[in-house]
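Input structure tokens:
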């Protein structure tokens, strides 16, 4: 599968456990496509390494951490008031909300060997 939103970076610890990290930030219209990519990746992992998901330190083949945040920002205008000698702030119109998602997948060498050609990057 070609991923449009998730771009994974790879790192490995001294024990050979690999970790694939990705972060994506999209506006509301693109959120379903991002969620579909995440579901595709996790669905593959659950199918390819069936019943092997869990804490790596307990001997599982793979594990993941998935987090999301919805952010709304707006431009703030600052002006210096010569009379009061202070800054005056005024809020602008809020921008469209952004949804930022992070996905980290850790796995054994065998898991990483299978993951890399499907979704991996460096």
């Amino acid at each position: 599968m070609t991923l449009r939103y998730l771009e994974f970076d790879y790192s490995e610890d001294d024990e050979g456990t690999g970790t694939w990290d990705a972060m994506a930030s999209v506006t509301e219209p693109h959120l379903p496509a991002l969620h579909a990519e995440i579901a595709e990746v996790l669905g593959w992992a659950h199918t390819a390494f069936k019943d092997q998901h869990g804490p790596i330190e307990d001997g599982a083949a793979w594990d993941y951490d998935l987090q999301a945040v919805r952010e709304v920002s707006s431009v703030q205008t600052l002006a210096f008031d010569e009379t009061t000698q202070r800054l005056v702030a005024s809020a602008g119109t809020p921008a469209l909300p952004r949804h930022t998602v992070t996905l980290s997948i850790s796995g054994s060498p065998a898991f990483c060997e299978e993951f890399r050609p499907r979704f991996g990057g460096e």
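Strands lie at 9-12, 18-27, 62-71, 74-81, 86-94, 98-107. The first strand starts at residue 9 and ends at 12.
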